Amino acid sequence: MPLDLGNAATPDSKTLQKLAVITSAAGGRVVERRLRGSLGDHLAAPETLSQPRHRLPRRYPLPRPSTLLLISCNPISSGLSVCRVERRPELSVQELALTPFKFRGILEIKDLRKYKVKVSRRVSRMRKLILHWGRNLFRRHCYRNKNLVSSSPMPVFVSNVLLLMTSRGYSTESSSELPLDLLRIMKQRIIAIEQKNSYLQQQINQEVVSVADYSRANKELRELESSMELIKRLRSIEKEIDGLKSLMSDCAEDKDMSNMAAEELEQALVEERRFQHLLLKSLLPKDDADERDCILEVRAGTGGEEASLFAMDIFKMYEKYSQKRGWNFDVIAIMESNIKGYKEASGTISGPGVYGRLKFESGIHRVQRVPVTEKSGRVHTSAVSIAILPQADEVDVQLRNEDLRIDTYRSGGAGGQSVNTTDSAVRVTHIPTGIAVAIQNERSQHKNKAKALEVLRARLYEMERSRLHTSRSKLRAEQIGSGDRSERIRTYNFPQGRVTDHRIGITNHSIEDVMEGECLDVFIDALLLQEEMDAIASFSSQ
């Protein structure tokens, strides 16, 4: 049943926004669509579709996206969240800043000023916010400074919905036009790639070529293969567009032929913009470690026993999140506290693109709650440090025996008959750096040693990556998502039931869902989007 919109006026053409990025609650894949057209397929499972498809009126032109707004529905907790938009001048991009409220049968949006909705100049004419919920579809129109109270409940099966628009004219929507300066730079890169590809082809086809030169040229050609396929497809579409334009000029008197050519030209332009976006993403710098597995390290910080209990909760949160995404989670080592919390814990997470998705989780996670050891009911603040390390192979990090000191000792703590009876615990120290790793979880000394060497390789690999990255960019600490472990990145406030990520200003009021690994994607997706937008901003400034 749709919401009662009261006497809400129909939006004019300049206030209607166009971009809807819908994140499936089940698959987590981002699907980009215009608001114009059917969205039902992305809002519910196919078997729930029974109502006729709704379409926005064709008389509303769809302007270029210019602001950033998030409306997120959690189908499990029935919670609706509304984002406010903020801008960081030093990054020249807009950020998400989530201000959620709980849904309890009646959805109320009192005043958008209460939620500090900030918009850029290009969208200052927005008047109200209208939410129209149906069984499989909702329509949104943006207004400002008007009250709206709905009278019927919101369906809980609807997936998370992101309304994403940027302040620099760039959109993640594949059908939106790229800025002219970005197109100019991209065309220069395309010409350079084509020239390099032609040069490498000539090298390979020479009658006399050394084995080393042939191998090097062949390797570089493989790296350019995906970009060249997109470039060839883009060139083909550009030729098709030129042909359609000439056909329209030749057949100006034939209306039927001209209309057919105009329709095909419109489709070709949409296809051209889609391949331009794909090519732009392929030209952005990539982190080679994003596709690697990772090692999760959790350490209790300030806060005593309460910090160790929260470290256990955080460790289990990532374990549940990994299971929900179909990743393999294996415990490496756990050092328990006196009240069964975790002083330190580490584990390996294996799966496609694990490190690339979790790399921004590194940092200080702060918790505010009443500890179980507190009798007076006071709220305490504790901290836990999280480290996400890309897993390194033996080829990446060479460990020489003369650089290692291996100590064995008897394991301690709970563990049955094997505790304090055999020298199964292993401590491996890397002498040049002083890094030490101690493992005692396994009964076998050889297994503990193998795990310790695995963790040591990951730490050395991350140290080298950080050193190279710091030398290449002195501004890393000033950027969002730096992952610096010295900064507080997230706060878990249990009395208020909220989780806030301080790097991007997102707040989620379903802390129980976050601790169960349900809502982590809200933060991770926003951070990955911010990384992509920063990369595009850096690309356009070159």
Automatic annotation (TrEMBL):
<dbReference type="InterPro" id="IPR045853">
    <property type="entry name" value="Pep_chain_release_fac_I_sf"/>
</dbReference>
<keyword id="KW-0488">Methylation</keyword>
<comment type="similarity">
    <text>Belongs to the prokaryotic/mitochondrial release factor family.</text>
</comment>
<protein>
    <recommendedName>
        <fullName>Prokaryotic-type class I peptide chain release factors domain-containing protein</fullName>
    </recommendedName>
</protein>
<dbReference type="InterPro" id="IPR005139">
    <property type="entry name" value="PCRF"/>
</dbReference>
<dbReference type="GO" id="GO:0016149">
    <property type="term" value="F:translation release factor activity, codon specific"/>
</dbReference>
<dbReference type="InterPro" id="IPR004373">
    <property type="entry name" value="RF-1"/>
</dbReference>
<keyword id="KW-0648">Protein biosynthesis</keyword>
<dbReference type="Pfam" id="PF00472">
    <property type="entry name" value="RF-1"/>
</dbReference>
<dbReference type="InterPro" id="IPR050057">
    <property type="entry name" value="Prokaryotic/Mito_RF"/>
</dbReference>
<dbReference type="Pfam" id="PF03462">
    <property type="entry name" value="PCRF"/>
</dbReference>
<dbReference type="InterPro" id="IPR000352">
    <property type="entry name" value="Pep_chain_release_fac_I"/>
</dbReference>
<feature type="domain" description="Prokaryotic-type class I peptide chain release factors">
    <location>
        <begin position="410"/>
        <end position="426"/>
    </location>
</feature>
<dbReference type="GO" id="GO:0005737">
    <property type="term" value="C:cytoplasm"/>
</dbReference>
